[in-house]
Specification:
Helices cover 2% and strands 54% of the residues. With 186 residues, it is mostly beta strands.
């Protein structure tokens, strides 16, 4: 059993027979009364967010999670098709379940698939990825006075980001996957 004082962001727990991922939590000790834990949970089955409060010391069944390396083959509009790199076994995950992570992945990239209780539920991407700029306007000398400024760019995976004026088509850029912000040239 896992107690509320063992909560960590990203841990999976079962509450009333439903599996949730802990997105955020906060231990609260009011001046009067018992301590409690305020949490933000994400339902694994459909991704719905939920705020829930638990008494301090409450216990839950921990959920067994593991990640497996897979190769992303393609997405066909309804499912994301993946292949296990060891067994060459192919599988699908509903595309709407992994659409946020899928933006940062190109076809034939290796990805980590999160399994919750032996079922594939999420696609995990690193905190920053390197992608090639597919299209952007050329930066014109003298566009800015102080050297700052940015312009829109389309990356090879189809994501639109803002990049500095000196970035051109064909440049490899590093992008933060959590915020979608340009980090540096690669």
């Amino acid at each position: 059993m896992i107690s509320t004082n063992q909560f960590k962001n990203g841990t999976h727990i079962e509450v009333d027979g439903v599996v949730f991922k802990i997105v955020d939590f906060q231990h609260v000790k009011p001046g009067k009364g018992g301590a409690f834990v305020r949490t933000k949970l994400k339902r694994v089955s459909d991704g719905a967010a939920l705020d829930k409060t638990f008494r301090a010391g409450e216990k839950f069944r921990p959920i067994r999670t593991e990640t497996r390396k897979m190769q992303f083959l393609y997405a066909d509009g309804t499912d994301a098709h993946l292949m296990d790199v060891q067994t060459y076994e192919q599988m699908t995950i509903p595309e709407d379940q992994v659409k946020d992570s899928l933006r940062w992945v190109k076809e034939s990239d290796e990805v980590d698939i999160l399994y919750v209780d032996e079922r594939p539920t999420d696609l995990q991407v690193p905190s920053a990825v390197e992608l090639v700029v597919a299209e952007t306007e050329p930066g014109v000398k003298g566009d800015t006075v102080s050297g700052g400024g940015d312009k829109p760019a389309m990356l090879e995976s189809g994501v639109a980001v803002r990049v500095p004026l000196f970035v051109n088509v064909g440049d490899r850029v590093r992008v933060d996957t959590r915020s979608g912000d340009y980090v540096s040239r690669a």
